[in-house]
Amino acid sequence: MSSNTNLKNILSNLEIAGEQADVYLSLLEMGEGNYTEIAKKTGIKRTTLYLILEKMEKKGLIKKGLDNNKIQAVEPQQLFEKMQSNNLIFHQALPVFRSLMKEPAKIAKVKFYNGQKGIQQLFMDDLEFYRNKTEKIMRTLAGSSFYENDADFRDQYAIKRQETGVETQIIGSYDLKPFTKEYQKQFSKQKVKFLPKSVGQITGRISASTNRISLIGFLKNESGLVITSKEMADTFIKFFDFTWGLMK
Description:
Arc Repressor Mutant, subunit A, elongated, 10 helices
């Protein structure tokens, strides 16, 4: 059952035969691919491949990836439900089909926020992100800028953060220190270590956890962005954790 020949025989029962079966199985193994990559993998001429992919798209066997130049195979379970839900042989072979699958590359998503209201929305979106997460530690590099703004929003944000159970580790610039005493409520469930004055003032904010990293600039035209990327978030977290460990 583990060979591609057996899998192609199973697909033929769903009227996915010949070169269409070759392309479908190849795309499972590739995760995603463009026309050139698929042609190379399957040995099918590009002129022929265009027609095959067009027919497969109409059948719902393939879909466009996040990068529209890339094509992905429909997940086997979805294919099974779409094509013939009473096909017991295909159902039994689902684990084998899934074992072929390679996770497609994920393109980082970027969302922009502008103005004071936009920045406040970014803060709230950050907390909403953690609501259903197991890991609830936010690592932040920040200065006093946030605490020099809207006091009502600071209180609202502190309450919301406590509700979601998010703990924060903050590496702060020297100018943040007075605010940790003045706004004890806002700093509950937050651990703070301070950079020496010689480093200078941090006027922005960077925070990250799991696959999300936020960057905010508070001076002049306030703006921020959120990048959804595990690689970028991991890079910042490793740098942060290393620096945190060195600080008193």
